[in-house]
Automatic annotation (TrEMBL):
Ranges of residues in domain Stomagen C-terminal: 1-46
Pfam family, one: Stomagen
Organism annotation: Dichanthelium oligosanthes
Alphabetical GO biological process terms: positive regulation of stomatal complex development
Protein's name in the database: Stomagen C-terminal domain-containing protein
């Protein structure tokens, strides 16, 4: 269990079109500087 950081529950709309499981993963807000960037959660399909 992570304290102070809660992964969102993926909604049906976000995962519509996923053939396999859909999970919330941390994605850097600033893609150009991922080391110093803040992170947010995004639902990602796994093929």
């Amino acid at each position: 269990m992570l304290i102070g950081s809660i992964a969102p529950i993926c909604t049906y709309n976000e995962c519509r079109g996923c053939r396999f499981k859909c999970t919330a993963e941390q994605v850097p807000v600033d893609v150009n500087d991922p080391m110093n960037s803040a992170y947010h959660y995004k639902c990602v399909c796994h093929r």
